[in-house]
Inverse folding.
């Protein structure tokens, strides 16, 4: 997907969980805005925990050992999710290898 401002639908573990507005890409990473629906609720704690840990020690150069371990465990849990994007305009599916959701921001690797 090499053009920004594309509307897509995010599916996690086969469930439609929200809308994505693709804003751009860099190498194999894409980024945009995410608008969840009610189906995202079971997945929200995973991404919320990841977001908190990513921002936990912003004043420090390094995460604490405990935060680093919890972040690693959270990212393993996130990587187990089966995420795909559906592009209604083209009818095409995109398989996602890794997805990060931080509030209304989303980025993913194909």
């Amino acid at each position: 997907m090499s053009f920004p401002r594309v509307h897509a639908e995010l599916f996690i573990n086969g469930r439609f969980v929200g809308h994505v507005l693709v804003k751009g890409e860099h190498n194999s990473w894409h980024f945009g805005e995410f608008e969840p629906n009610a189906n995202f609720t079971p997945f929200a704690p995973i991404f919320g925990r990841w977001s908190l840990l990513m921002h936990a020690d912003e004043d420090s150069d390094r995460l604490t050992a405990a935060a680093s371990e919890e972040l690693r465990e959270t990212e393993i849990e996130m990587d187990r999710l089966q995420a795909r994007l559906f592009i209604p305009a083209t009818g095409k599916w995109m398989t996602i290898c890794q997805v990060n959701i931080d509030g209304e921001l989303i980025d993913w690797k194909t």
About this structure: The mean pLDDT is 91. The helical segments are 44-56, 65-79. Strands lie at 6-12, 15-26, 29-36, 83-87, 92-96, 98-102, 105-109. The chain has one domain: 6-109.
